[in-house]
Design goal:
The longest helix has 19 residues, at 93-111. 16% of the residues lie in helices and 24% in strands. The strands form five sheets. A seven-stranded mixed β-sheet has the order 11-10-13-14-21-16-18, with no helix packed on it. A six-stranded parallel β-sheet has the order 2-1-3-4-5-8, sandwiched between helices. A three-stranded mixed β-sheet has the order 12-9-15, with no helix packed on it. By secondary structure, it is an alpha/beta fold. The protein has helices at 11-21, 53-60, 93-111, 123-134, 169-175, 237-240, 242-253; strands at 39-42, 69-71, 116-121, 140-146, 186-191, 202-203, 208-212, 226-229, 268-275, 291-296, 310-313, 319-325, 331-336, 342-347, 359-360, 374-379, 392-394, 411-416, 424-429, 432-437, 445-450. It comes from Bradyrhizobium brasilense. It holds the Pfam family Lipase_C.
Length: 453
């Protein structure tokens, strides 16, 4: 029988209370990994492996060895308009199933484990279900589907070839039968309590306002799975929020996490990929000949402190790094890629090491930016800006281009006058604050404050 729970313990305080009731000290060390299976994390539509960074850090802080985890990068992460018709820089469900099968094989070979766990965000859950049902999924012990539109973003008679159409052949094939899960694998679904833009009764988020989608907020739930409602989280937060981490960890490890907070390492080593957007389509195809420079910057002004900490140029594999940084340093990444705007990416300190610090150039400057002295962006890759749910302040003001209600926007843009070039600009999202510098648009430069949480 499918289970549903609408309240979960939140944060380190709740965990400390739980530990005290169980007689365990709140500062106890994480339990060894034991028989916890290796875990492969699967990103969503148009995304990349780096979105799982904070989840991987939390897993490490709870005793899961780094070498027993991996995060896939689908080559072309964006779905086709019609699954059966080829489309440049986009992937079919079969493309994703095939790439996922290879990543599973590699993790099993690396760890020697006969079975592994899969955790997917949004479209990543489609690939997971497709592999388990149609790809010989006997080697999957657990499947966690976070905000996956298991019954479609909509269920309409037109556009049946679209992967996200609940009446289309792909989802009908996955949902056929009395049970919507595959025997032998334990399934968990995580969903929002009404704030997932892809699980709405009205078609406004699918381009047809006023038209019923024939899908409800319960769309991500599956018959035969453990189905949990996380609360007022948005579509991406069903995978990347601390509440989601708690449930993912507990389901796979079979006990509560020791901690939710991310514990810093004494030395941090960073590396990743530079990927491109041919024709404006996000891909995970490597970009050769890109230059990555990293600077330590002042937290209050965004000004550089000394020269570059790291400089490298990507080869054919698109990889940059490694760079050694202090876990207390705010950073500026300067990405110069062929044919793109020079992108200045400002980040909060990295508390732990990561090999998936993937970088994409910002969008090109366009007609809407004409006459601007500087163009600055605030980006939230692991969630959306929710108003009035969240505190969102950009240069001291609530952004006008963030729509209230169901969270739908993960990027907000501000255009500054020529007199503002060079000055600091603060981006605030709840408890995270990043200060960047406004770089001249006349030099084809864009600055981005990229939030971690």
């Amino acid at each position: 029988m499918a289970l549903s729970r609408r309240r979960i313990l939140q944060g380190a305080g709740a965990l400390s209370l739980l530990a005290s009731r169980l007689g365990a000290p709140a500062s106890a060390q994480p339990a060894p990994a034991g028989d916890t299976p290796p875990i492969l994390f699967v990103h969503g539509n148009g995304d990349h492996a780096a979105l799982w960074m904070t989840t991987l850090w939390r897993m490490e802080c709870n005793g899961v060895p780094r070498e027993r985890m991996a995060a896939i990068n689908f080559t072309d992460p964006l779905a086709r308009t019609d699954d059966k018709i080829e489309q440049a820089s986009r992937s079919s469900t079969e493309d994703q199933r095939r790439e996922l099968a290879e990543a599973i094989r590699e993790l099993k070979q690396k760890t020697g484990a006969p079975r592994i766990a899969l955790v997917g965000s949004s479209r990543g859950g489609n690939a997971i279900r497709n592999y388990i049902k149609n790809g010989g999924g006997g080697d999957i012990s657990h499947a966690v589907l976070c905000g996956t539109p298991n019954h479609g973003v909509y269920a309409w008679d037109d556009g049946l070839g679209n992967e996200f159409n609940g009446r289309g052949p792909f989802l009908r094939g996955l949902n056929d039968g009395d049970s919507e899960v595959t025997v032998g694998t334990l399934f968990l679904t995580l969903r929002s309590d009404g704030l997932d833009k892809y699980a709405q009764a009205d078609g406004r988020f699918a381009g047809k306002p006023g038209t019923p989608t024939n899908v409800t907020t319960d769309g991500p739930a599956l018959k035969g799975a453990t189905n949990l409602v996380l609360g007022a989280v948005d579509h991406r937060e069903t995978a990347f929020h601390p509440r989601a981490f708690r449930e993912i960890y507990k389901f796979i490890a079979r006990h509560e996490p020791w901690r939710i907070e991310i514990v810093p390492e004494t030395a941090v080593r960073l590396s990743g990929l530079v990927t491109g957007m041919p024709g404006g389509v996000p891909t995970n195809r490597p970009v050769p000949g890109a230059t990555v420079d990293i600077y330590h910057v002042a937290a209050e002004t965004g000004e550089r402190i000394g020269g570059p900490l790291h400089s490298s140029q990507t080869g054919a594999d698109g990889r940059w790094g490694p760079a050694q940084v202090d876990p207390s340093w705010p950073l500026e990444f300067v990405l110069t890629s062929p044919g793109t705007a020079t992108t200045h990416i400002y980040r909060s300190p990295f508390p732990r090491s990561s090999e998936i610090v993937h970088l994409r150039a910002a969008r090109p400057l366009g007609p809407a930016d004409a006459g601007a002295g500087a163009v600055v962006l605030m980006s939230r890759p692991r969630g959306y800006f929710g108003l009035p749910r969240d505190i969102v302040l950009f240069d001291g003001k609530e952004p006008a281009d963030v729509k209230p209600g169901v969270p739908t926007d993960s990027v907000t843009t501000m255009r500054l006058a020529a007199d503002d070039v060079g000055r600091p600009v603060a981006a605030i999202f709840n408890g995270e604050r990043i200060v960047m510098r406004a770089w001249p648009a006349s030099e084809n430069r864009i600055a981005v404050a990229e939030l971690t949480y």
